[in-house]
């Protein structure tokens, strides 16, 4: 799939707008019902469910692209009794904190905070401590506007700067890297939580790990780019699918 010219831009824009409109509704629905046995049994499909046991051991960096109902991932993991500390700053961080403020008390022991990454030195110290104490962190790593990025990667046939903190953090703490996505499927209200194969860090450099992370993310978003939060970058730049 190549994103060039203006072909199909209007159709893709409408799909993206529809996704943005209903993402909040999905987040509210998941928040309200994810604690119920009925929802977990009848409305949630878990792909590669066996990976839950590995994550429960801790020292895992869970990551997801800003794709699908990514705002719901901390909540759905907590509902499955998976401890996680989401990383976010700016508007995204405020949004997640507002959800935490009204969360059921039974979930708060699984999500103790939303870690602000705007101060890299403080965040790095906290992240190392979390992983060393067998905690899990949750990151959404695929795009950065940071100055002079060390790495660039190809998303939807276009190059973008990307952060490499996730890969470096995993290498330094010998942590597992577990990719996951969460999205609505078929008719409302059915959802899919999908665990992918772990990213291997053994005998790999930070750069190689980072490449593997972003190749996987691209393979996820290229199939349904209208579910990718950052699709507006392509819309603003007047780029669309051939």
List the topology elements.
Elements: H1 9-33, H2 37-42, E1 44-47, H3 51-56, E2 60-63, H4 73-79, E3 85-86, H5 90-101, H6 105-108, H7 120-132, E4 137-139, E5 151-155, E6 158-162, H8 165-173, E7 176-185, E8 190-195, H9 206-221, H10 231-236
Parallel strand pairs: 1-8, 2-4, 2-7, 3-4
Antiparallel strand pairs: 5-6, 7-8
Helix pairs in contact: 8-9
Describe the structure.
The protein is of the alpha/beta class and 242 residues long. It is 43% helix and 16% strand. The protein is built from ten helices and eight strands. A six-stranded mixed sheet has the order 1-8-7-2-4-3, with helices on both faces. A hairpin with a 2-residue loop joins strand 5 and strand 6. The protein is globular and about 45 Å long. The termini are close together. Mean pLDDT is 85; it is low at 238-242.
> What is the number of E strands?
8
List low-confidence stretches: 238-242
Tell me the β content. Answer: 15-25%
The backbone outline, from C-alpha atoms, is: globular
The helix count comes to 10
Order of helices and strands: HHEHEHEHHHEEEHEEHH
The portion of residues assigned to helices is: 40-55%
A few lines on this structure:
This protein is an alpha/beta fold and 242 residues long. It has helices spanning 9-33, 37-42, 51-56, 73-79, 90-101, 105-108, 120-132, 165-173, 206-221, 231-236, and strands at residues 44-47, 60-63, 85-86, 137-139, 151-155, 158-162, 176-185, 190-195. It has 10 helices and 8 strands.
